[in-house]
Design a protein that fits this description.
There is one protein chain. The chain is α+β, with helices and mostly antiparallel strands and 823 residues long. It has 22 helices and 37 strands. The strands form 9 sheets. The chain has a 5-stranded mixed beta sheet, with helices on one face. The protein has a 5-stranded mixed beta sheet with strand order 12-11-15-13-14, covered by helices on one side. The longest helix is centred in the first third of the chain and has 13 residues.
């Protein structure tokens, strides 16, 4: 990581500003003395938003700060500052705990963060994928990457600083490693200097061999001693790249670098650079003009020449381009060289795609400062010379068949077939394998496109076509439909419900009997066994006398006493759409349970022993109350078994209590009670135990939940008081005492409409006679409620209305059932 980068990350993570930057490169220990409290809110907000935009999360930043030596106390302060500013979202107390939820900060994330803040520009320049050839210089391309692990080229020119390795073998064996001096010589012991500068490897090898054979290795003349020359360490050299290169400049490269290697190093041409006129300048002369299209199209590497010291590569602007789009194999932008035909450039684009229209293409041109369009036929491709900014669009072939017919329905092999000249319908049916056994032979249809391009229908008789008595000549895109008997026949079914294991619908079959249907549905359930089976069959009437006012709608077949499935009555043949109902045995009863919850001796689930079992009976079975129970506060939660909607319930309550519906709708608490799917029934156990079986000794229903409250001496005060709360019960006190304990009435309180709701669900309000007020008594576990005046435009509830609503909600199920039964 660079010094600049370490400085910046330290500044960001620790918010130290200019002082931290002035310290130079920071080690991990430099972050131990950071004081987060000295950083301004503006700086914290600015850096956090930039970090968020770069993809770094808060836990990752905290983890990185800890890795750099930041104390846990400072990390916690930093996190608190972020939370106060509304930036942080974590409540974890330690940086390590936060970091365990996410991966550590990656190098890619840091790089992205650096780039967004302008610290460094490490992002590689992206290439324009539309320009043909630009992908060679993309971020992941290695096509032109230099490769120095190659054999020494025979045409390599030796120069100063090259190392030559001379191997002598045969009668004499010796190895010399000599570096070429600045003057271009190598010095061989007992031989002297040999000038090799500017020679190729082959030329240098011949010169050195001649020198050695004439001095110390005379056996080389006869071949008894041989010599081999190769390169050791190669020299470096400087080249310059100018023009429309992505990264122009002077480069120090190895002496084995080729022109393609240099193009890779500079990132290739820019979007405005030429791919086809790249110049190699040596000694102030252009010695080669490179066309990369030769390599891209044919793999020709003849332009990939070795570079020499002080070579200059110039990438000029492109002169002319054209665009291929549409259904070509390689849509994109292509550079034009003078004299090239459309045929050649079209070859670079891969020519037509599979579904292209091949007879012509459309060329959009700029002609005399105006747009023009040209339709170019395929036979003119080789003669047409493209112009600058030509845009070629290759369309798609028309997706219409010239010779297709289709057959579907009751044939062996439906599908598309070739339309032969003069082909008749009988031939098509034979090609499709003939008619199936279920084919409807009375009529068939041909769906055809008429001469006016409108839809037409041609009817035929499949039986006559098969016998050759009816001949119909087919046309292109005819669709032949032969119906199946199964398709035009009603889907017959029968159904069974009631006391069978798998009730539902079943397909009707001929001669299907009642016994068969019961077996198909899994057999009788336990509720229907143990005696005679009672079954009803409802059968459709196809000729009802609808003129009469009391006509018969269905035929009911009653089987009142069928001993079993072997009885003759079970052999009744069923007809389509019969509906069978299997009744349970009259005396069969499933267990029905209730639940007791609260301070009783044996709470839990209980099953009703008999119909009409009452609450006193069940409480005796539960062992009675514990000492902590409040026997005056017992409720039954009963789930509603009617489908009455909330609006109907509110209307019903308004009717029974004679309170306007608007008053109910304006009270959210009451509406919440009305919308409940259950209700609570208060129980007066004192009267219930005094008169067992009486009106107060409520009959239990399956699913009831008996709730026994915990004994308490608290009184709840709610509504328009300054401090709604629970207050211990004081014997002999009245409502005023408890109101004073809560801070007295608020300015919005309806004092004269204050009322008390007792534990048994009943309610009582303040009564007024002449100038005297009578306050209801207060008991333990009761609730004092002070209504609000509400807004001026809204209709409020009087005390009497509140009391009425409270009483009605306590027994709503009984009221609703009563009204339903009354209707």
């Amino acid at each position: 990581m660079s010094v600049k980068r370490i400085l910046f990350l330290s500044c960001f993570l620790l918010f130290t500003g200019v002082t931290a930057l002035a310290q130079g490169p920071l080690a991990a220990g430099d972050l131990k003395n950071i004081d987060v409290e000295k950083v301004s809110d503006e700086d914290i907000r600015s850096y956090f938003e930039k970090a968020k935009a770069s993809g770094l999360s808060e836990p990752q930043l905290m983890d990185l700060a800890k890795q750099r030596g930041m104390p846990d106390a400072q990390i916690q302060k930093l996190r608190d500052r972020l939370l106060l500013l509304g930036l942080g979202g974590s409540s974890v107390s330690s940086a390590s705990a936060m970091a365990s939820k996410e991966q550590p900060v990656s190098e890619e994330a840091l790089r992205s963060f650096d780039e967004k803040l302008g610290v460094i520009d490490m992002k590689p320049q992206l290439y324009n994928k539309r320009i043909f050839g630009s992908e060679l210089f993309g971020e992941l391309s290695t096509t032109f990457e230099p490769n120095l692990r190659i054999a020494t080229p025979s045409n390599y020119i030796i120069g100063p600083d090259d190392e030559l390795i001379i191997n002598v073998y045969g009668y004499s064996e010796k190895t010399y490693r000599q570096r070429v001096s600045a003057e271009g010589n190598i010095y061989i012991e007992n031989v002297g200097p040999v000038f090799v500068n500017g020679l190729s490897v082959e030329e240098a090898e011949a010169r050195i061999k001649a020198k050695l054979s004439s001095t110390i290795y005379r056996a080389m003349a006869s071949g008894a001693t041989k010599m081999q020359l190769r390169l050791g360490n190669i020299r470096s050299m400087r080249i310059t790249i100018i023009g429309e290169a992505k990264k122009p400049g002077t480069y120090t490269v190895s002496s084995l670098t080729t022109l393609f290697n240099a193009l890779y190093l500079c990132g290739g041409p820019t979007d405005f650079g030429s791919f086809r006129n790249i110049e190699l300048i040596r000694g102030n002369k252009v010695i080669r003009t490179v066309d990369l299209y030769r390599f891209l199209a044919k793999g020709d590497r003849s332009d990939n020449v070795l570079l020499q010291e002080q070579d200059v590569i110039r990438i000029p602007y492109y002169e002319s381009r054209m665009v291929f789009s549409g259904y070509v194999k390689r849509p994109g932008i292509y550079e034009i060289k003078p004299g090239e035909s459309f045929e050649m450039l079209f070859g670079y684009a891969g020519r037509f795609a599979d579904s292209a229209y091949r007879k012509s293409v459309t060329v959009y041109k700029i002609d005399d400062e105006r747009l023009a369009i040209k339709t170019l036929p395929a036979d003119s491709f080789a003669h047409y010379v493209p112009a600058m900014a030509d845009s070629v669009v290759v369309g798609t072939a028309t997706m219409r068949y010239a010779n297709r017919v289709n057959i579907k329905g009751a044939v062996m092999r439906p599908g598309d077939y070739e339309l032969l000249p003069g082909m008749e319908l009988k031939q098509l049916i034979e090609k499709a394998g003939g008619l199936r056994e279920d084919a409807f032979l009375g009529a068939g249809n041909i769906l055809r496109i008429g001469d006016n391009l409108g839809p037409e229908n041609v009817s035929f008789n499949p039986a006559k076509v098969k016998a050759g008595e009816e001949k119909i000549t087919l046309k292109r895109e005819d669709e032949v439909v032969i119906a199946s008997m199964l398709d035009i026949t009603d889907n017959y079914f029968i159904s069974i419900e009631g006391e069978v294991l798998k009730p539902g619908q079943f397909s009707w079959r001929k001669d299907l009997r009642l016994r068969d249907l019961i077996l198909l549905s899994g057999g009788l359930s336990e509720a229907a066994k143990g005696g005679d089976v009672h079954i009803e069959i409802s059968r459709r009437i196809r000729s009802a006398d609808v003129k009469g006012t009391d006509f018969k709608q269905s035929e009911i077949i009653k089987i009142a006493s069928m001993p079993g499935l072997s009885d003759s009555q079970s052999m009744i043949i069923l007809e389509p759409f019969d509906m069978v109902v299997v009744r349970p045995q009259p005396g069969y009863q499933q267990q029905k349970g209730v639940f007791v919850n609260g301070p009783v001796m044996y709470p839990g689930r209980y099953f009703l022993e008999k119909s009409g079992e009452r609450i006193t009976d069940l409480l005796k079975r539960a062992g009675g109350f514990k000492a902590s129970a409040d026997s005056h506060s017992v409720f039954i939660r009963r789930f509603l078994k009617t489908e009455i909607e909330a609006e109907e319930r509110s209307s019903l309550i308004a009717k029974l209590s004679r309170i306007p519906s608007d008053s109910l709708m304006n009270n959210p608490l009451l509406m919440e009670e009305i919308k409940k799917k259950y209700t609570s029934l208060s129980v007066n156990l004192k009267k219930a135990f005094e008169n067992p079986g009486g009106n107060d000794d409520l009959i239990l229903e399956p699913g009831d939940i008996i709730l026994v409250s915990q004994n308490s001496n608290l009184v709840k005060v709610a509504g328009e008081v300054y401090f709604p709360t629970l207050i211990p019960y004081e014997k002999g006190t009245n409502i005023k005492y408890y109101i004073k304990r809560t801070g007295d009435y608020t300015s919005m309180a309806r004092r004269n409409q204050t009322f008390v709701i007792y534990p048994d669900g009943n309610a009582a309000g303040v009564k007024k006679f002449l100038f005297f007020k009578s306050y209801p008594k207060v008991t333990p576990r009761s609730e004092i409620f002070v209504p609000s005046k509400g807004d001026k435009g809204k209709q409020g509830l009087s005390t009497g209305e509140w009391v009425a609503i409270s009483s009605i909600l306590a027994t709503i199920t009984t009221l609703i059932v009563s009204v339903i039964n009354a209707n």
